């Protein structure tokens, strides 16, 4: 970056040291099937899946283990053949380490595919809705990390009438190289998946955005896409968070997504390149999403590289396969270093959205004491959505969440640029996460209060009605009695007069 | 070690990486940028200037550590701390008459560190620039001492005081001889104007603005050499410690009215070069108005802030009762900074300036 | 004499002007109580010591009760009330240990159905001689049921937090 | 015209009613917790100050002087000011209940804002004409509003700062306003 540029340009984002190589250049290794797999029922955005198998049941690879529950949810399939050992709790791949419901599958070692898989030789001849159905049946979710159910995204894009399919090959997070590797090794499959997605969404063309620090991937994808006029490969400048939806769409199409809206608002839908591969596998081969390529990297990993791991494998097994740990890691992270979650321990499973497992040494994690904000506004300059992290964090510190929302807290995409550049080492993202969590909890409390208020009102109404009915009955009885008495009196009087 | 032996020490929030920036390094860079002008000042004004500088820094640090002890925040970063108190002391020393007695430096350090900074909660919490608050408080309280500028010694016929004499001057045991003091250019112009003399006549006698570039003239260390201060500022710009908005604003805020006024009334208004090169304007533009803590946080805000400082400086110098106005201007704009920050915010991506989601113009 | 006359006339004139202005700018007695009541949980659990939420709202509007008087409402309700009332609130005075829940101790419940009729939200399910159950979604943790259980089988516990609803702790301030 | 402008600048900045004349400190300390109510207070005070100055000028020149009742000046001025404040209170309550609540007791207390009476009396003392009185009052009120808003902005920032417990609240507000007064001293002697 030239001197003049450094002084005068208003640039968003950061240029972190990427640590991608040598892991990106090492050939992919396929992890042998572990003895037990732990399939979290909540490995996608939305409602957890509902188990469709019983304990003790034998399953084959690719058979459905759990059904989606509700509109935003995804099915889960068996990554290998074996027996359901239990349905119980396991530590979630989440900083809290709180338990999550999981299906525990004992592998039988034969790894037999189910013979009920629906293959298709001419998927472009299928109805777009049928493609969506098969993608849903395969339990495909967004592989970039957000894990939004892909079928839902395909069908809603079609309804919204999107015109452009943006394929995210940015992979801007440092350390991670699984998308890079996938594009180098399986460009043909990815392009096939992209063309299926074009068909399913009704979009006219697809743009594959790849950061220019992956020349091999760009070359491979260009070669594979050359045969198709509607798929273009575009190198984009390497800069974090280029892979974020809003930034990617703006860079590739020049369109700015309105706050709070989906990319569909500007006629765009964004999918990850890994998702395209999963879609192709699901539709052509009928194979559900049961394993994925992920990067094992970080200063404490003996042999960094990309590993094909079954969904449900424990993190410690994956690391052990990748050569194990040297030294003592300062942090164990699932996902990238900028937005990934720190794990409490390694006995937690790989899920569909796990793009990487990082064992970072102390220098890489850079865990330093928080100092006072000097208002240097480095964070504001780094922020890709141009909120003022320093001001928002001040308000959160002072418990003024309302003020924080007014300053744009809800626009924050939690990319971590602000905390990355902060010279005072203020955990800005933690402040924002805390505030967002607290606000969500308050929302839930408010909704519950609304619901219970209705219940209470219904109850007092019921009590009032019961009291009223009781009173009416009593009044009727009394009236009847009086009438009877009067009748009797009249009778006796009549009798007397008679 | 095996992965299953790992247990997180606590809950870590993302990101799990850091760019490596440090407050201490930023402070160090600013100090580095001040060094050339300061060394030149030592050469120009001799030992007393050095002692005053040393004492001011010393007292600033002592008061900083004392305050941190009292508020229970001490000992976290060692005696030298984050270097912010040293920087404040340094900036204050740069604006004081170099032969001031020691207690001016000590009192100034007290006002800067304790009253203007630690009382507000320490680093990053103050709303007024500590060095400028101290400078204004001193000027208002001790106008005599604060305007006793010595003539630079290398050019004067008088002998420079030696180490011991210098120490005694700083300790106030030897009064500064009248023959060695002189008004600064701005002060001189103001006095002459009030005596009814025109500037052309007044400035003919010895005050040559060209000397300002070299800085060989009466004044504080911070105004001695505009050239060296400018070099320091460019160093800060190049290392990304400061950005261009505030300095440009200050320089333009003074330059534009000075050019116009001098063209209209050359007898009563100083020329632009004198304005830019005299007093604390250069120091203010590159080292004071760029103070992160007390200036607005946005680029546009900093430009507005700088323009305000520059314009007010010119107004006070030209129309006001004080010959120099940078410190007052900075304090006044410091007070306005929260309002500027409320008024000028960057447009959030996907929203209009008023905060509403944008319409789908791109579709 | 002149002075008295002047002052009297001046006073009368200004008084008249203000009287007219008062008519023109009259503000109807504000519906403070109703607005406050709308913020309260509305379960009439009585923990505040006033007869129902309406009573508490009236007391707060009259200044007889602090905005922190509603235990089931917690911090959120206290803050909302304080804002409506235009008073500052010392948050440390609000006891808020997060949302709570009544739980039936299954080994103690005798299925007497006595608690049922005291629950303001009908959150307790039960039939005679059957172990009762508390509907998590409907229970406000108001504890109205606790004292009516003959075997002390009803316990108020903090609402369990799942990982989806887990809130990132605030950074320990440096 | 330009003289009038200079008078405005002079009263607003150079001879600022709050920081140089030290009048009306009570609302400055009391209603400067947030910017919105500070602005409301400033506007209400501007209204009262200007109207009171006009009314008191008329009172002085059409009633008190002709009848030789100058000894009633303070009494009648206060009466007029109180009425204007009453009217303002009704008006604010009707048009902006939120502001009414935010200003609280300080709204009726404008009556005892010594800046209002002070400016009216200064107008008499300095024998200003009617429009000159209005401009003087308006300029003073603008200066008052300016200080109130600057101070509110500073206090909003300080409210979220880590002020040591011993200085939290009123003490830090006094330290701040003293430093603000130092900044305004730069305008002293301004030849406008």
What does this structure look like?
The complex is a heterotetramer of chains A (498), B (363), C (174) and D (192). Chain A has helices at residues 3-8, 128-137, 150-160, 178-185, 187-201, 215-225, 245-253, 273-285, 315-321, 362-365, 378-382, 389-397, 401-406, 417-421, 428-497, and strands spanning 29-30, 36-40, 50-51, 58-59, 64-67, 76-77, 82-91, 99-107, 164-169, 205-211, 231-236, 268-272, 291-297, 305-310, 331-334, 341-342, 356-360. Chain A has 15 helices and 17 strands. With 498 residues, chain A is of the alpha/beta class. Chain B has one domain (24-187, 197-341). Chain B contains 16 helices and two strands. Chain B has helices at 23-45, 47-70, 84-95, 102-115, 130-141, 163-170, 185-194, 199-204, 211-214, 221-224, 226-238, 245-264, 272-277, 281-288, 299-319, 326-343, and strands at 149-150, 181-182. The mean pLDDT of chain B is 84. Chain C is α+β, with helices and mostly antiparallel strands. Chain C has two domains: 32-93, Electron transport complex subunit B, putative Fe-S cluster (3-methyladenine DNA Glycosylase II, Chain A, domain 3), CATH 1.10.15.40; 97-160, Alpha-Beta Plaits, CATH 3.30.70.20. Chain C is elongated, with a radius of gyration of 25 Å. Classes of the chains: A alpha/beta (498), B mainly alpha (363), C alpha+beta (174), D mainly alpha (192).
Give the secondary structure arrangement, pairings included.
The complex is a heterotetramer of chains A (498), B (363), C (174) and D (192).
Chain A: H1 3-8, E1 29-30, E2 36-40, E3 50-51, E4 58-59, E5 64-67, E6 76-77, E7 82-91, E8 99-107, H2 128-137, H3 150-160, E9 164-169, H4 178-185, H5 187-201, E10 205-211, H6 215-225, E11 231-236, H7 245-253, E12 268-272, H8 273-285, E13 291-297, E14 305-310, H9 315-321, E15 331-334, E16 341-342, E17 356-360, H10 362-365, H11 378-382, H12 389-397, H13 401-406, H14 417-421, H15 428-497
Parallel strand pairs in A: 1-14, 9-10, 9-12, 10-11, 13-17
Antiparallel strand pairs in A: 2-8, 3-5, 4-7, 5-6, 7-8, 13-14, 15-16, 15-17
Chain C: H1 2-24, H2 32-39, H3 52-61, H4 74-85, E1 100-104, E2 124-125, E3 133-134, E4 154-158
Antiparallel strand pairs in C: 1-4, 2-3
Helix pairs in contact in C: 2-3
Chain D: H1 2-14, H2 25-30, H3 35-64, H4 73-95, H5 97-103, H6 114-125, H7 130-159, H8 170-185
Q: Which key features would you list for this structure?
A:
heterotetramer, B: 363 residues, mainly alpha, two-stranded antiparallel sheet, 16 helices, globular, C: 174 residues, alpha+beta, 3-methyladenine DNA Glycosylase II, Chain A, domain 3, Alpha-Beta Plaits, two-stranded antiparallel ribbon, 4 helices, 8% strand, elongated
């Amino acid at each position: 970056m030239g001197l003049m540029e450094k002084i005068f340009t208003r640039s968003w984002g950061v240029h972190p040291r990427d640590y991608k190589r040598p892991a990106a250049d090492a050939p992919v290794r396929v992890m042998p099937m572990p003895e037990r797999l732990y399939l979290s029922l909540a490995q996608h955005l939305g409602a957890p899946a509902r188990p469709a198998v019983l304990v003790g049941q034998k399953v084959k690879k690719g058979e459905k283990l759990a059904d989606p529950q509700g509109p935003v949810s995804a099915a889960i399939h068996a990554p290998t053949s074996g027996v359901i050992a239990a349905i119980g709790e396991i530590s979630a791949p989440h900083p809290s380490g709180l338990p999550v419901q999981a299906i525990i599958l004992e592998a039988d070692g034969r790894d037999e595919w189910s013979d009920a898989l629906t293959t298709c030789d001419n998927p472009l001849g299928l109805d777009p809705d049928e493609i969506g159905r098969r993608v849903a049946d395969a339990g495909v979710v967004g592989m970039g990390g957000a894990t939004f159910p892909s079928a839902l995204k395909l069908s809603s894009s079609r309804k919204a009438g999107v015109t452009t399919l943006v394929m995210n090959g940015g992979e801007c997070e440092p350390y991670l190289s699984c998308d890079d590797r996938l594009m180098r090794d399986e460009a043909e499959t990815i392009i096939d998946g992209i063309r299926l997605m074009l068909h399913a969404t009704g979009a006219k063309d697809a743009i594959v955005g790849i950061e220019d620090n992956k020349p091999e991937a760009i070359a491979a994808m260009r070669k594979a896409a050359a045969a198709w006029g509607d798929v273009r490969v575009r190198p984009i400048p390497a800069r974090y968070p280029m892979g974020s939806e809003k930034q990617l769409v703006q860079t590739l199409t020049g369109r700015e997504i309105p706050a709070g809206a989906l990319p569909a608002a500007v006629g765009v839908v964004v999918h990850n390149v890994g998702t395209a591969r999963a879609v192709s596998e699901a539709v052509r081969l009928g194979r559900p999403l049961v394993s994925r390529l992920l990067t094992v990297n970080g200063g404490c990993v003996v042999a960094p590289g990309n590993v094909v791991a079954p969904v449900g494998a424990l993190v410690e097994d994956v690391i052990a396969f990748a050569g194990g740990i040297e030294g003592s890691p300062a942090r164990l992270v699932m996902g990238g270093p900028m937005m990934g979650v720190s794990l409490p321990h390694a006995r937690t499973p790989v899920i569909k959205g796990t793009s990487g497992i990082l064992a970072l040494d102390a220098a890489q994690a850079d865990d330093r004491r928080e100092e006072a904000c000097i208002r240097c506004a480095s964070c504001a300059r780094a922020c890709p959505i141009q909120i003022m992290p320093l001001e928002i964090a001040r308000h959160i510190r002072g418990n003024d969440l309302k003020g924080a929302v007014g300053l744009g807290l809800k626009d924050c995409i939690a990319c971590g640029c602000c905390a990355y550049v902060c010279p005072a080492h203020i955990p800005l993202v933690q402040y924002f996460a805390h505030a967002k969590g607290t606000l969500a909890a308050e929302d839930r409390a408010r909704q519950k209060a609304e619901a219970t208020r209705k219940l209470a009102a219904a109850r007092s109404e019921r009590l009032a009605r019961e009291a009223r009915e009781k009173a009416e009955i009593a009044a009727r009885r009394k009236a009847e009695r009086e009438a009877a008495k009067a009748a009797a009196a009249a009778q006796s009087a009549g009798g007397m007069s008679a | 070690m095996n992965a299953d032996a790992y247990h997180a020490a606590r809950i870590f929030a993302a990101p799990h990486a850091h760019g490596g920036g440090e407050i201490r390094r930023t402070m160090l860079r600013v100090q580095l940028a001040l060094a050339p002008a300061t060394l030149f000042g030592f050469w120009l004004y001799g030992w007393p200037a050095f002692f005053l500088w040393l004492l001011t820094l010393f007292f600033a640090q002592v008061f900083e550590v004392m305050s941190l002890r009292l508020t229970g925040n001490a000992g976290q970063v060692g005696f030298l701390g984050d270097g912010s108190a040293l920087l404040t002391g340094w900036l204050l020393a740069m604006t004081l008459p170099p032969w001031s007695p020691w207690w001016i430096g000590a009192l100034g350090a007290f006002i800067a560190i304790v009253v203007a900074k630690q009382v507000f909660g320490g680093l990053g919490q103050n709303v007024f620039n500590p060095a400028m608050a101290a400078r204004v408080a001193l000027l208002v309280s001790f106008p005599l001492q604060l305007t006793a500028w010595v003539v630079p010694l290398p050019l004067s016929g008088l002998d420079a005081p030696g180490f011991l004499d210098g120490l005694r001057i700083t300790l106030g045991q030897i009064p500064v001889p009248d023959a060695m003091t002189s008004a600064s250019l701005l002060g001189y112009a103001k006095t002459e104007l009030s005596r009814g003399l025109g500037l052309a006549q007044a400035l003919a006698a010895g005050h040559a603005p060209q000397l300002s570039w070299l800085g060989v003239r009466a004044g504080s260390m911070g105004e001695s050499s505009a050239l060296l201060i400018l070099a320091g500022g460019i160093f800060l710009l190049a290392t990304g410690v400061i950005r261009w908005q505030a300095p440009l604003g200050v320089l333009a805020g003074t330059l534009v009215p000075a050019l116009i006024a001098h063209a209209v009334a050359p007898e009563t208004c100083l020329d632009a070069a004198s304005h830019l090169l005299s007093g604390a304007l250069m120091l203010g533009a590159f080292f004071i108005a760029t103070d992160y803590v007390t200036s607005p946080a946005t680029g546009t805000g900093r430009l507005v802030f700088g323009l305000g400082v520059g314009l007010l400086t010119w107004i006070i110098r030209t129309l006001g009762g004080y010959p120099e106005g940078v410190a007052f201007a900075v304090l006044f704009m410091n007070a306005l900074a929260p309002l500027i920050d409320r008024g000028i915010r960057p447009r959030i991506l996907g929203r209009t300036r008023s905060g509403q989601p944008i319409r789908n113009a791109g579709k | 004499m002149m002075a008295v006359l002047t002052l009297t006339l001046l006073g009368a004139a200004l008084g008249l002007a203000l009287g007219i202005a008062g008519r023109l700018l009259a503000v109807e007695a504000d519906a403070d109580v109703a607005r406050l009541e709308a913020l309260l949980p509305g379960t009439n659990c009585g923990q505040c010591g006033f007869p129902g939420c309406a009573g508490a709202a009236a007391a707060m509007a009259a200044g007889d009760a602090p905005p922190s008087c509603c235990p089931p409402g917690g911090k959120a309700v206290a803050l909302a009330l304080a804002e409506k009332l235009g008073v500052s609130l010392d948050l440390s005075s609000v006891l808020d240990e997060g949302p709570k829940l009544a739980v039936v101790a299954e080994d103690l419940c005798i299925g007497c159905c006595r608690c049922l009729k005291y629950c303001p939200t009908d959150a307790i399910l039960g039939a005679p001689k059957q172990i009762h159950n508390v509907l998590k979604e409907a229970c406000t943790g108001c504890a109205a049921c606790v004292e009516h259980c003959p075997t002390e089988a009803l316990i108020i516990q903090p609402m369990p937090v799942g990982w989806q609803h887990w809130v990132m702790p605030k950074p320990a301030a440096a | 015209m330009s003289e009038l402008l200079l008078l405005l600048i002079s009263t607003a900045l150079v001879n600022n009613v709050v920081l140089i004349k030290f009048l009306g400190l009570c609302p400055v300390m009391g209603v400067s917790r947030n910017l919105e109510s500070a602005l409301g207070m400033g506007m209400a005070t501007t209204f009262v100050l200007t109207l009171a100055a006009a009314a008191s000028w008329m009172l002085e020149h059409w009633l008190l002087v002709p009848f030789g009742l100058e000894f009633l000046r303070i009494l009648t001025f206060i009466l007029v000011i109180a009425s204007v404040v009453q009217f303002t209170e009704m008006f604010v309550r009707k048009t902006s209940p939120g502001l009414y609540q935010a200003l609280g007791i300080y709204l009726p207390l404008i009556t005892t804002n010594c800046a209002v009476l002070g400016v009216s009396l200064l107008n008499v003392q300095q024998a200003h004409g009617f429009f000159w009185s209005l401009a003087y009052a308006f300029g003073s009120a603008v200066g008052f509003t300016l200080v109130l808003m600057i101070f509110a902005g500073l206090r909003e920032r300080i409210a979220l700062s880590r002020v040591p417990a011993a200085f939290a609240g009123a003490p830090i507000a006094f330290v701040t306003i003293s430093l603000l007064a130092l900044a305004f001293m730069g305008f002293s002697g301004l030849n406008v």
